[in-house]
Amino acid sequence: MHYLDNAATTAVLPEAAEAAMHAMCTCFGNPSSLHQMGIDAAHLLEDSRKSVASALGCLPEETYFTSCGTESTNISLRGAAHLNRHQKGRIITTAIEHAATLNTCKQLAAEGYDVVFLQPDETGHITPAALEQALTGDTFLLSCQLANNEIGTVQPVAELGAMLKAKAPRALFHIDAVQGLARVRLTPKKWNCDLMSVSGHKIGAPKGIGALFVKKGLRLPPLMFGGGQERGMRPGTEALPNIAAFAKACDVRMAHFDEDFVHVQSLADYLRAQVAAQLPDAAFNGAGDIPHVVNLSLPGCKSEVLLHVLEGDGVYVSSGSACSKGKQSGVLKALGLPKARTDSALRVSFCPSNTTDDIDAFITAAQKGVTLFKR
Ligand code: PLP
Predict the structure, then answer these.
(1) Strands 283-285 and 293-297
(2) Is 217 buried (19+), middle (13-18) or exposed (0-12) by CB count in 10 A?
(3) Separation of alpha carbons 316 and 302, rounded Å
(4) Ligand 1 center to residue 102 CA distance, Å?
(5) HSE-up of 194 (CA within 13 Å, CB side)?
(6) For residue 15, what pLDDT band results from cuts at 50, 70 and 90?
């Protein structure tokens, strides 16, 4: 099996699974219980928060556990909107966000907020000049991703944050760093960032765990009400097995950050060289600033069909965002690519345990697919 769909989700790391097992079977108390088992669980919760906070580049008290990246983004965007519910005002986001942001923003537009979707340039980047043009005095929120899930472009978040705070000092800056965690060093404070979403299942933790950085001093209204866990921001008994696993995945990935990056970069370079040599009709899409995500088109080959040809040879890639399930990619469309390119796009995404064998298998299977299409 050659799993090259790590931007969709990753296998759980053995160390993370072990941490979850410990929290499920040994340290299974409720962190709110007053007895020793509760106290032990509360310690595990706070130790886990320290690990995740360190990966997020923030303080433990600025780190809130949620169920996923989507929830973190909803808390951020809906919370900021709620604070401005009377005067409404402008929300700025981009046309190439993940559905978690796009659909929340569309819903807020339906509720009367003035939402602007910035277009990227042809490389997939949002320029500070584009942001400057859209900024108005009543802008209260900018939401922008760090790394794109389909083409791997990294947005100039430091410049965007500086521009936002210069022109609209009271506006909040939310960053969707789901694809950036453990791939880009996260420095929310240097970026003028107030809110930042991440998700565990992209870095070797189980599905169902996310986190949200909320800058010290900022208080958002919660989406849910309950027992006051996570300082009232996200009530509900803490999912300690997932939280402990997420913390362990952060520890493992951050301990190997530099060597993992070098390895994944070498895989991306090898893939690009092999594609150029052996699939001459192929074209790469987007700048691919992080090596973990490589997007390429094989014009004439329909993505969904090719994907299943590859699957027949044990090679797993995707035709775009896992959430878009076969719809035409809005990200590739926003780059201005012709339909022949968007219809034939494949996303190959790596994790540190991939090897060149996986890429060789991809190339062989893709060559077979191209031959089938040419018949
Ligand atoms: N943002 C980006 C950039 C993503 O790639 C994803 C998941 O694919 C999400 C948000 C949503 O994260 P989750 O699956 O944890 O809800």
Answers:
(1) antiparallel
(2) exposed
(3) 16
(4) 12
(5) 22
(6) very high
Ligand 1 close to Cβ of residue 70 (< 6 A) = yes
Closest ligand 1 atom to Cα of 8? 8
Residue 21 has pLDDT above 90, yes or no: yes
**Pairing mode, strands 172-176 and 195-199:** parallel
DSSP state of 34: S
SS3 173: strand
Choose among 306, 320, 372: nearest CA to 99. 320
Tokens of 352: 């540190």
Task: Name the strand (E) or helix (H) holding 116.
Answer: strand 114-118
Q: What is the pLDDT of residue 375?
A: 72
Residue 43: count of CB within 10 angstroms of its CB: 12
What is the pTM for the complete model shown? 0.97
pLDDT at residue 324 greater than cutoff 80: no
CB distance 69 to ligand 1 below 6 Å: yes
Looking at the chain, the whole-number percentage of residues with pLDDT higher than 70 is: 98
Cα 329 to Cα 9, 84, 193, distances in angstroms: 18, 32, 28
Question: In 3-state terms, what secondary structure has residue 318?
Answer: strand
